């Protein structure tokens, strides 16, 4: 049969035969009902339009009647007889109550036969106040024209607040409003009742409204008020019969008096705002209805731009004296949509019967075809690599039930294969990996359980690494002899020592070099012991081969990780062993740093709430901490260990002392030469003693200065120069016995003839060690600086000048030597960055190389600021400083006690060297004390005012930590 032949579903045929006749009958009834309901709905639309017109008339009446009532009351007010402005202002309270208590009324005014005018307007919005340039607190404006004794009319504006306190008063010579020329005045003067103007747009408020006017009871004035009817347009939105129904109140001259979106269509010019014409509404149906009014009552159908409409026009009688009508256009499709809704309601019984029959047919057909369809779907899912959605089909059909069982087993096997692959690729811990793989392997093969043993070559035994569904396997099984390459896969290494009540199948695990890795022991259930095992054994052997490769790979990775850890610790130990001054530093800093970082990751303080460390993060941080000073391997030991100013590879104070010895001998020779020449012995004796005393004092001063101190003042520097200016005579050639490098330095200077007179202390050219192309690229603008360093390198590598070194103001290090020590962090970054770190360890160089940075950006080597530093980098900085302060193995300084060390840490945090939040955690969590008990001498652990420091740190942070 052709593959393109269309096949029919059994379920479809079963349902079709039941419901076809019922649907045919229902369709006839539905058609007839729709025709009748459509006619009824059109008639109902006409009735709804008439009711809508009546509703609008009623709403307009309710809008205007309160204003008319108020106006009739005001016609009896005494303001009509007031002839002066003070009299009229005396009625201000009455007028303010009128506009304040009726939101529809915007202004109340009085016009007089002599042209005088008095108006009170409510300033309800900021827009109105801006229009009149009114003061900020203005609530009302009084606009008036008053007749003066000289028959001139003066215009004035007065501004009042809500309590009718006068805020400002302006004389407006340009205010030339004459009420007698206004239509409302003229119409009211000729009538004994309230007159009403056609709707128009108030210029000041942009509201649509009408002006109501009435002659006063005494006939002396005309009283008017502006009443807003803008709410009418807003209320029309709620009267729409369908979403696209268009409703408008249109005057006979085509002006639109009310429309739901009328604000968008107002006609604006520089001097006026007017109502739109019907053509300007962008409503073609309303425009057609206005131009072609219905000739008979009720809805009339028409078509505009290919769309069918029903139109209704009803006269509006509430606005007496103004001829206008309500125009309503309804889309025919929306009107018929209501017809369909009504039809569905009328035919619910018929539809319900059809649904019941469809359900009956569907249920009967579904019960027959559901098992086959489910099997089809499951096989389709397998072809689409979806192995997780299969469930066993429970059916009375025997063939379908058996086929479902086969598919269920196949899906479970594939799913377990995928799970084994996932475990092998994701799990890093070998024991957990073996246990998960074993559990999946047992499930895929239908075995009862199993165990995995790994071979321990040192102990000559198999060690239990994981089990599933067994609980009585021994944890260790000793081999009878040392396995070697002659062991084959068929050997039974464990069966004699596994539980004898079970049948076991063993698979020996070997790596690519056929070295023994372990054994997988699988417990075979009784029902499988007598079946053909060839295919089963082949499958198990192939699967466990994958496990063997995974074990070999994991063990190789673990051994490489152990080797890396050992090399790192070896390097750190070598750095510590290089100098007794840093002994143990590279070992203690990681301990302290990990303690503090663990506290930070568990802390709930706001500063650390989003900081956490996974096991991988802890590994990166631990390695970085161990390697944080690896650059010190390039730091010369004599610079790191320099304890005196003249020290290089040795303390050159001995050379200086020898020169003083020469001067001592010279003084003695001068004494004996004087005696020999006949000089008085007493005089020569006094000169000798004075010279020798001076030499003793000078050397003592130089020797003491060589030790270094807190600060060397300018007077001491001058005395060094004076002492150094003394001369001594050298008789031996200083170019003999030199190394090649020394000869190159001496060759740069002339060779003086012997005997040579030299200064006691000198800064010689051969004391200068130039970079010779080895200058490190630490300047920010150096093209070779690709690490972001921002330091200043000295002009020369070393300056061993005696006066230069003795003149060091603080400590024992010159600028060049201090840079050389600081350069260790530069070398740390360069060395670590050159290593091919795996992806998880790529942050090691950054963390290890930032522990000398400061929060304020004045640290080195990259001048990082606090936002640029991670929590780990800031932790390592605190650990490095605290360990250096408390270390007891520094020959050049005594170990500081806890109180002194924490005091220094606080000052460094205050000065933005260290992170105050981390220091607060360091003290509050007790990490400092835990470290002290492990690494400090008992006499160093003294009392510390921890609460006091915590309070100072909280004040420093400005928030509660």
Automatic annotation (TrEMBL):
Residue span(s) of domain HAMP: 366-419
Pfam families associated with the record: HD_5
Domain HD-GYP: 725-938
Spans through the membrane: 12-31
Identification of the protein by name: Phosphohydrolase
Swiss-Prot/TrEMBL keywords: Membrane, Transmembrane, Transmembrane helix
């Amino acid at each position: 049969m052709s593959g393109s032949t269309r096949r029919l579903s059994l379920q479809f045929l079963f349902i079709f035969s039941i419901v076809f006749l019922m649907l045919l009958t229902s369709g006839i009834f539905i058609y007839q009902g729709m025709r009748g309901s459509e006619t009824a709905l059109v008639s109902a639309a006409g009735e709804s339009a008439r009711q809508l017109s009546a509703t609008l008339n009623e709403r307009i009446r309710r809008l205007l009647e309160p204003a008319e009532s108020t106006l009739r009351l005001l016609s009896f007010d005494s303001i009509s007889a007031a002839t002066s402005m003070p009299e009229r202002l005396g009625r201000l309270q009455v007028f303010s109550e009128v506009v304040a208590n009726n939101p529809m009324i915007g202004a109340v005014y009085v016009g007089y036969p002599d042209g005088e005018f008095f108006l009170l307007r409510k300033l309800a919005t900021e827009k109105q106040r801006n229009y009149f340039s009114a003061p900020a607190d203005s609530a009302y404006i009084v606009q008036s024209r008053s007749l003066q004794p000289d028959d001139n009319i003066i215009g004035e504006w007065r501004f009042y607040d809500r309590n009718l306190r006068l805020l400002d008063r302006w004389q407006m010579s340009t205010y030339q409003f004459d009420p007698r020329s206004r239509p409302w005045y003229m119409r009211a003067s000729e009538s004994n009742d309230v007159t009403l103007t056609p709707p128009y747009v108030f210029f000041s408020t942009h509201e649509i409204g009408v002006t109501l006017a009435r002659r006063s009871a005494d006939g002396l004035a005309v009283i008017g008020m502006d009443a807003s009817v803008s709410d009418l347009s807003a209320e029309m939105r709620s009267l729409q019969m369908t979403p696209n129904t268009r409703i408008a109140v249109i005057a006979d001259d085509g002006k639109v008096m009310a429309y739901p979106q009328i604000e968008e269509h107002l006609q604006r010019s520089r001097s006026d705002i007017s109502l739109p014409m019907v053509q300007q509404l962008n409503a073609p149906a309303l425009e057609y209805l206005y131009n072609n009014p219905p000739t008979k009552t009720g809805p009339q159908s028409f078509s505009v731009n290919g769309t069918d409409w029903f139109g209704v026009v009803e006269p509006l009688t509430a606005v007496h004296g103004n001829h206008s009508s309500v125009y309503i256009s309804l889309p025919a499709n929306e009107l018929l949509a209501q017809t369909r809704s009504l039809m569905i309601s009328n035919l619910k019984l018929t539809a319900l019967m059809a649904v019941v029959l469809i359900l009956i047919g569907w249920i009967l057909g579904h019960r027959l075809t559901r098992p086959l369809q489910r099997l089809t779907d499951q096989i389709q899912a397998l072809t689409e690599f979806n192995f997780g959605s299969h469930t066993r089909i429970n059916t009375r059909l025997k063939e379908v039930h058996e086929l479902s069982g086969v598919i269920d087993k196949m899906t479970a096997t594939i799913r377990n294969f995928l799970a084994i692959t996932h475990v092998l690729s994701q799990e890093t811990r070998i024991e957990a990996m073996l246990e998960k793989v074993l559990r999946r392997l047992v499930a895929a093969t239908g075995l009862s359980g199993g165990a995995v043993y790994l071979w321990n070559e040192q102990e000559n035994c198999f060690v239990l690494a994981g089990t599933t569904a067994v609980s009585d396997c021994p944890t260790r099984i000793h081999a009878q002899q040392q396995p070697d390459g002659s062991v084959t896969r068929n050997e039974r290494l464990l069966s004699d020592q596994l539980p004898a009540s079970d049948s076991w199948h063993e698979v020996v695990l070997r790596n690519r070099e056929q070295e023994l890795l372990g054994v997988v022991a699988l417990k075979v259930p009784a029902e499988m012991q007598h079946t053909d095992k060839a295919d089963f054994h082949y499958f198990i052997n192939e699967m466990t081969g994958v496990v063997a490769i995974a074990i070999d790979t994991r063990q190789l990775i673990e051994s490489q990780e152990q080797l890396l850890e050992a090399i790192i610790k070896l390097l750190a130990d070598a750095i510590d062993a290089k100098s007794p001054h840093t002994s143990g530093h590279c070992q203690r800093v990681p301990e302290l740093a990990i303690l503090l970082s663990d506290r930070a990751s568990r802390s709930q303080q706001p500063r650390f709430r989003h900081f956490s460390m996974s096991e991988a993060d802890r590994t990166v941080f631990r390695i970085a901490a161990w390697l944080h000073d690896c650059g010190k391997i390039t730091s010369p030991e004599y610079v790191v260990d320099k304890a005196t100013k003249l020290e290089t590879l040795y303390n050159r104070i001995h050379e200086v002392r020898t020169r003083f010895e020469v001067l001592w001998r010279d003084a003695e020779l001068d004494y004996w030469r004087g005696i020999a020449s006949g000089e008085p012995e007493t005089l020569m004796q006094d000169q000798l003693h004075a010279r020798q005393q001076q030499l003793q004092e000078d050397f003592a001063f130089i020797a003491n200065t060589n030790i270094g101190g807190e600060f060397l003042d300018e007077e001491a520097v001058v005395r060094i120069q004076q002492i150094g200016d003394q001369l001594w005579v050298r008789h031996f050639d200083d170019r003999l016995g030199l190394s090649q490098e020394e000869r190159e330095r001496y060759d740069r200077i002339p060779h003086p003839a012997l005997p040579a007179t030299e200064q006691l202390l000198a800064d010689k050219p051969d004391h200068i060690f130039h970079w010779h192309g080895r200058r490190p690229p630490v300047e920010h603008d150096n093209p070779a600086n690709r690490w972001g360093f921002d330091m200043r390198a000295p002009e020369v590598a070393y300056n061993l000048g005696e006066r230069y070194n003795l003149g060091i103001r603080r400590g024992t290090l010159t600028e060049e030597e201090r840079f050389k020590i600081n350069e260790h962090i530069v070398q740390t970054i360069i060395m670590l960055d050159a290593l091919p770190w795996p992806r998880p360890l790529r942050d090691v160089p950054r963390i290890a190389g930032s522990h000398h940075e400061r929060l304020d950006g004045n640290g080195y080597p990259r001048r990082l600021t606090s936002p640029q530093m991670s929590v780990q980098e800031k932790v390592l900085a605190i650990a490095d400083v605290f360990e250096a302060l408390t270390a007891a193995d520094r020959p050049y300084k005594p170990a500081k006690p806890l109180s002194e060390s924490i005091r220094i840490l606080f000052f460094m945090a205050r000065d933005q060297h260290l992170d105050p939040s981390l220091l607060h955690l360091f003290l509050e969590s007790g990490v400092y004390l835990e470290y002290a008990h492990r690494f400090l001498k008992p006499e160093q652990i003294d009392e510390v005012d921890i609460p006091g420091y915590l309070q100072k740190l909280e004040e420093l942070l400005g928030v509660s930590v």
